Amino acid sequence: MAKASRKFQEGPRILTTRREALHLYREIRRYTNLFVWKDDKGVMWRDVLRANARKEYEAARHENDPEIINKLIITGRDAVHRVVESFWRRRNQIIQDEASRQESSSNVNGGRGGLSAPGYEGGGSQKSS
C-alpha cells in the first residue's frame, strides 16, 4: 500500500516537471527567432540553437528522477535568460552606436544625416560671398 501511495504522489510531480520542461522548450523556440544572422558555415543561428536544444532534450528524455529533471529545467531557464539578456544588451548597444554615428554624421554634413547627392559639396543654405 505504501508503494502505491508513493507512486500516486510522484505522478503529479512528474507531470508538473514534464509541463515545465515543455514550457521551457517552447520558450527556447520562441527566443531563437531573435537570432536571424548566419554563422561561419552559413547556417542560421536560430537553427543551430534549436538543434542544440533538441539534442539536450533528447539526451535527458528518459530521465525519471524529478530532482535531476528540476535541476536541468532550472539550468536551462537560467541559460535562456542569460542569453536573451545578453542579446538585448548587445542589440541596444548596436542601436546606440548607430544613432551616435548618424548624429555625428549629420553634424559633419550640415544636418543632412550624411546623405548628399554625387558631386554636391554645398552646405545647405550657405550664403556665398
Automatic annotation (TrEMBL):
Domain (Complex 1 LYR protein) ranges: 19-79
GO biological process, one term: mitochondrial respiratory chain complex III assembly
Source domain of life: Eukaryota
Pfam families in the cross-refs: Complex1_LYR (PF05347)
Cited InterPro entries: Complex1_LYR_dom, Complex1_LYR_LYRM7
Gene Ontology cellular-component annotations: mitochondrion
Membrane-spanning residues: none
Biased composition (Gly residues): 110-129
UniProt region (Disordered), positions on chain: 95-129
Name under which the protein is recorded: Complex 1 LYR protein domain-containing protein
Organism field: Chlamydomonas eustigma
